[in-house]
Structure formats: structure tokens, C-alpha cells
Specification:
The protein is an alpha+beta fold and 124 residues long. 23% of the residues lie in helices and 30% in strands. The protein starts with 5 loop residues before the first strand and ends in a 5-residue tail after the last helix.
């Protein structure tokens, strides 16, 4: 069994805080020492949807181990998936709902492309 990976991060209110990082955490390379302990966040690698060099959606596993929030969709001690620019942290059911909504949207885009091709006199 491997030892849990730990990290020590400076905070503005509790000084240096040592905590275990979940296996999926990508580390804390951009940690700001002025961060409050309650705002410490583990984050996994981002999964981006980009088109024409623009990020349309970005999602990543997150967990705030010292969070005091119990408000759904705002993250907390329970891991979730943070979605930008939605600005929400989703549970598995909500994330599957988002994926289903994107599937439907992709179908609408294909229909619109068909319509445009017909308008432009194409064969599609
Ligand atoms: Zn971490």
C-alpha cells in the first residue's frame, strides 16, 4: 500500500497547512499564500472543450477539504466536478444531465448545419 501523498500549503489564517492530496489532484502549482484555509481546493486535470482556440467549457474534479459550504452546486468537502463557465460544482447525476444536454445541443447544431447547407444550395 502506498503512503498518502501530502502537501504543505501556506495560508493567511492558519499558517502552513499539511493535508493529504487525493490521487486525482494535479497538485497546487498556482497556490496563493494569501489563500484562507477554508478556500483550499484540490483540483484534477481540466477537461476542456475548445473550438477555434476558444475554451467553450472546462470541467475538473474538485474538493475543498476545509469548506464550510453546504450549498449544493458551490463545492464543498464532497468531491464534485466544477464546470466553467457554468460556475457550478456538479454531482454525478447533474454531470450526466449536462452531458445529455450537450448531446442534444450537438444534434441541434448538426440540424442547423444541414439547414445552412440547404440554404447555400449544397447537397447535404
Ligand atoms: Zn491537492
Amino acid at each position: 500500500m502506498t503512503e498518502p501523498r501530502t502537501i504543505t500549503l501556506p495560508t493567511s489564517d492558519y499558517g502552513s497547512v499539511t493535508l493529504p492530496c487525493p490521487a486525482w489532484c494535479a497538485g497546487h502549482p498556482l497556490h496563493d499564500p494569501e489563500t484562507l484555509r477554508v478556500d483550499l481546493v484540490h483540483a484534477g486535470p481540466a477537461v476542456d472543450c475548445t473550438f477555434l482556440s476558444q475554451t467553450l467549457l472546462s470541467a475538473e474534479l474538485v474538493q475543498s477539504p476545509f469548506s464550510e459550504s453546504t450549498t449544493p452546486l458551490l463545492g464543498g468537502r464532497t468531491p464534485g466536478v466544477s464546470v466553467y463557465p457554468l460556475g457550478s460544482t456538479l454531482d454525478p447525476v447533474a454531470l450526466y444531465g449536462l452531458a445529455a444536454g450537450l448531446d442534444s445541443y450537438a444534434d441541434q447544431l448538426r440540424s442547423l448545419a444541414d439547414q445552412l447547407a440547404a440554404v447555400l444550395g449544397g447537397d447535404r
